């Protein structure tokens, strides 16, 4: 890609890598003039995207999404809570996005990534306001017990398109979610019904035998942000 | 916290939320700058608090929460995990002196099968992913890179380690083992093996993330970290392999799972450089008798040398794959 261009003498003398680091803007501009990106993709093409469900065995629902090198691991864990007084029939979702230090050289244990709280807020706004999940499905016993879904998304490798990958993995994790069968104990506690007992007698009817999976409203995930995504998708340059 | 839950489930008493329980839970979570409310001692499950929007307004960094958060109570309601109603009968079997049957069917002196892969993280200088049974760990190595401005000049390199858990790593949400402890133990295990003189004035950062905790986490982290260091091209005296053992009554079990670790009378962890036959770190906790320690050490060292061979073959595969 080090095509000699008479207008800029320096570029023809330098190696590609050095030019990329020293003059990042010019490097990308030169590519855009040819309507191509540094990794050879045309402007309109996204990187290879893969999603795999069930990555984490200890969570109730999980998914791993990869867009190119960007890797996101999302997991949903369900816990029981008492629903709020004004909405006794609704559960709750708590969404959290983390960028641990392994994902990028810019993140350190004492210095969190600037992008993390922004994406976290964006994600929770998107998921909660889109109406993808009906909170009424997370209810167990009206007024007494409901599911609290903790959705945690960890960025394992940060290489641009973080929000897209995070949203993909979050939706995939919810689609993989398997709500465990529980019943109400004598003391008002919800307990799991373990598989071995299913043949024997149940003291209490399982509370949610039918509703084991969430129904997700079909939502179009807009992989928008094409133009800023271009600048975003390359290696981050300081 | 886990033991409190078990006791209450076993005793069948009504759940009353004690303040310490709320604080312990909130210590793991992101907190809002909200007015604190005192928890009511009533037998209802949780004080009826409204939930702030998504809990993400302030990014109090998840990893950094240990100090100074006591006394602050967030808006999120307290929750519990619905635990199965089974009693644990296994503990009694240890007391009667019968042989311990391992939950995953392994022999007492049989380690878990190891899955190791380098190059897991593209943004890092070197990285590795390790899966020992259910314990899954990713380690990234960055460096050698510039030390912080505040650091004094040093003519040998520096090593900086950090271990953190995901919130879904343990069966109970947000309950991570003492990660500060693990970070310093990882540091001690690795610093003997790295040739620090080869990168003066700079720092090598080793960051580990435990994706799923399946028992014997620290040995897995250490082995994975040494693979990642090798992948990054940092000069090492030798690969570092680590194995731990548990003493359960009269049985010695190698490479324990979380369940076995919770029942153990004593634990022994050895980190060594197999080809050089040198031990970089040895950790003994709990109750041991001298002949048992000797036996356990010997078993661990044998397992470490086997693990060292597996690690080398993993590295060789990675190199030959890139050469093709």
UniProtKB/TrEMBL annotation, chain A:
Cytoplasm keyword on record: yes
Every Exoribonuclease phosphorolytic domain range: 46-180
Subcellular location: Cytoplasm; Nucleus, Nucleolus
Keyword hit for rRNA processing: yes
InterPro entries per the UniProt record, alphabetical: ExoRNase_PH_dom1, Exosome_comp_Rrp42_subfam, PNPase/RNase_PH_dom_sf, Ribosomal_Su5_D2-typ_SF
GO MF term set: RNA binding
GO biological process: rRNA processing
Cellular component GO terms held in the UniProt record: cytoplasm; exosome (RNase complex); nucleolus
Keywords (A to Z) from UniProt: Cytoplasm, Exosome, Nucleus, RNA-binding, rRNA processing
Family the entry assigns: Belongs to the RNase PH family.
Protein name in UniProt: Ribosomal RNA-processing protein 43
UniProtKB/TrEMBL annotation, chain B:
Keywords, ordered alphabetically: Cytoplasm, Exosome, Nucleus, RNA-binding, rRNA processing
GO biological process: rRNA processing
A Pfam entry, by short name: RNase_PH
Major localization class: cytoplasm
Renumbered residue ranges of the record's region Disordered: 1-51, 72-101
Domain spans labelled Exoribonuclease phosphorolytic: 110-234, 238-299
GO CC, one annotated term: nucleus
Comp. bias (Polar residues): 13-31, 73-86
GO molecular function, one term: RNA binding
Entry protein name: 3'-5'-exoribonuclease family protein
Organism of provenance: Forsythia ovata
